[in-house]
Every structure is written in C-alpha cells, then in structure tokens.
C-alpha cells in the first residue's frame, strides 16, 4: 500500500454505485475519491439524494459498489464475501442509524449488551460493558427501560452506547439527528464530539442538519454523487452512463426479462424473414 492508504482509516478511489428502477439507471456515486484519517470527526453533508447514505453503507460493508476501490482499516471491503463482511462489521464498525434500530423487546442495557454477546463475550461481561457505556452517554439510570419507554433522544443515546460497546475503530452515523428536536440533536452531537475527543474514535456522519455541519471537524460536501469544493459548484454529470451504470449490474429479474424479450424479438425476426423468402 502507498503512504496515503497507510495513514487513512477510509480510502476510496473511483467509487461508482448505481441503482436501477426497472431498466432505468440512477447513478448515486460516480468516480468518488475520499480519504478519512484516524480520529477525524467528519461530516458528509448534502441534500437528499446526494449519495450520503449510499456512501456510508458502502464504507460500512452494508452495500457493495459497482466499481472502484474501498479500503477500510486497511481491508479490501469489495473483495470480501458476505460472511467476511459481517465479521468485519461486528469487530470494527459501530453504527448509529436515523431510526435507532433498537430491539423493541430488549431493555436499553440488553440492546447495548447484545452486540458484545455477538462478539463472543459472556452475558455478565456484556452487561458490565453495557452499564459502562450507558453511563458514558448519561442514561445509566435508564438501562432497565425498553425503547418504547424512552424519548427519541434517549433512544439515540442507547444507539450511540451500542455503537461504542463493540470497541470499534470507526463509527458511522447516518442522519443521527433527523428524528430529534433541535435541542436534543445539539446535545447528541455535543456528546459524540466529546466521545471522539476522549477516545479517539473516528466518526463519519451523514447529515444536512446545520448544527451537525457546524460541529464538523471536517466538512465533506456531496452533490449528485460527487465531492464538491463549494455549494455553488455544479458537478459534471457522468461522461458515460454505461460506465457508471453497467448493464451487467441490472437486477437479476430485469436481466431475465431482457433475455426473454430479446429471444422473442429474435424469433419474430426469423419468422418474418422466412415468410418473406417464401413469398
């Protein structure tokens, strides 16, 4: 690896990702390059549809890319199979989702402990770790409550505690304040900022919340799937849609339908040709 990769916790080069609605391609990311250094508190900002969530999902090994290079903690994410990605996520990345994604029948303490148990820790040790992190996010006294007994801000603090409980090197937070009122959102960002400073954990956050952007140690502006220097900049569209959205990445169902359609058209042409020769 080169020096840039050695000093980066996230290293992306020429990243392309396309979604399909039927046979209609919609490029989400095209040609994106990005480096994130260890310990950064970085915010990816942009309007809805700019590619923020897609970027985080690819970095977090939740989605694959169509092409490019994705290295996280020195590991080639795109070269991993499904089982390897699951194991990599479990031991290296903490997630904070917009919708909290807490298990409704578990208490706050059990939600945080669950990720530790998945890592192979005993229930006793997992509960001790959960208690520790719930106190770190200032809701240790609420560990016995289930998610439906907590406010939105408290649920998001549980999600942050759960993300930290696995001792990750990287935390990905996708629109973490979107479902919170402005004051609660500011408190949450202040808390995450403090945890970043105290423990040196790298944070990559997607948001269009002005308070989150203001708190960023580094602000990454995303527009139409590309990083821009200013909000006034209009990114160039993909030079070749087929390069960003290769036809061989069409969903399987659409490929089968296209194959059947092509075969029918071919047979129809042959029949017409035969009829013309006979006449």
From TrEMBL:
<comment type="similarity">
    <text>Belongs to the ABC transporter superfamily. Macrolide exporter (TC 3.A.1.122) family.</text>
</comment>
<keyword id="KW-0813">Transport</keyword>
<dbReference type="InterPro" id="IPR017911">
    <property type="entry name" value="MacB-like_ATP-bd"/>
</dbReference>
<dbReference type="InterPro" id="IPR003439">
    <property type="entry name" value="ABC_transporter-like_ATP-bd"/>
</dbReference>
<dbReference type="InterPro" id="IPR027417">
    <property type="entry name" value="P-loop_NTPase"/>
</dbReference>
<dbReference type="InterPro" id="IPR003593">
    <property type="entry name" value="AAA+_ATPase"/>
</dbReference>
<dbReference type="InterPro" id="IPR017871">
    <property type="entry name" value="ABC_transporter-like_CS"/>
</dbReference>
<dbReference type="Pfam" id="PF00005">
    <property type="entry name" value="ABC_tran"/>
</dbReference>
<dbReference type="GO" id="GO:0022857">
    <property type="term" value="F:transmembrane transporter activity"/>
</dbReference>
<dbReference type="GO" id="GO:0005886">
    <property type="term" value="C:plasma membrane"/>
</dbReference>
<dbReference type="GO" id="GO:1902495">
    <property type="term" value="C:transmembrane transporter complex"/>
</dbReference>
<protein>
    <submittedName>
        <fullName>ABC transporter ATP-binding protein</fullName>
    </submittedName>
</protein>
<keyword id="KW-0547">Nucleotide-binding</keyword>
<dbReference type="GO" id="GO:0005524">
    <property type="term" value="F:ATP binding"/>
</dbReference>
<keyword id="KW-0067">ATP-binding</keyword>
<dbReference type="InterPro" id="IPR015854">
    <property type="entry name" value="ABC_transpr_LolD-like"/>
</dbReference>
<dbReference type="GO" id="GO:0016887">
    <property type="term" value="F:ATP hydrolysis activity"/>
</dbReference>
<feature type="domain" description="ABC transporter">
    <location>
        <begin position="10"/>
        <end position="249"/>
    </location>
</feature>
